[in-house]
Amino acid sequence: MSPMSSRQLATAACACVAVFPAVVVSLNLIQHVTYDPKVQAISELALGRGGALMVVAFLSLGSGIALLARLLGRTCTRGRVTRWMLYVAAVLAGPMSAFFHTDLTGQPATTHGTIHNDAGLAAFLIILISMYAASGLFRRETIWRGFAAPTLVWAVAATGSFFLIPALPAHFGLAQRVFVATFISWLLAASAYARRVAPPAEDATLTGAPASGSSRG
After folding, report:
1. What three-state secondary structure class fits 28?
2. Pfam families annotated for this entry (predicted)?
């Protein structure tokens, strides 16, 4: 089986990330009677009707982040630290968040709930740092240079939205959604940008390296 091209990696990354908001919106509609999105965390959707879909959502999000990290390895001549931060975030936002459920708002904390919350917070912070790191990386990579400034703007916006979470404790769910929407939109935009500028050749890389060099990353 031939390796995925850069365009295929970008398409897969975009599709995987897109599953997360699609599931969240669907479960908000399904659970609209018992769930308050302004107050409750996104993860609490896993505890209600159809909540098993959140396992799919978290695993898909983690896969999308990992695919984007792989894509950066395929298309950038540097940036190993940025890639590995994204790989770590993929594990925390994916399997760690999927298989350790959070606790309901107002209920006593449990071990699995604490693990989920700590993993989610760590993933949020790592993705935020990765956005700043990626902005600097993209300025030094010819193909990615056009996405450097937008990435910095996204990172600044994500920083502001992240601090909304402790600033609005009575509307935690709303503040969390603003932050998550910010970094999800960046992941989607980065994947879409990579797909747009990727060469059509199956094994080509965005840096213009020969096909034989496409296995690095």
Report:
1. helix
2. DUF998
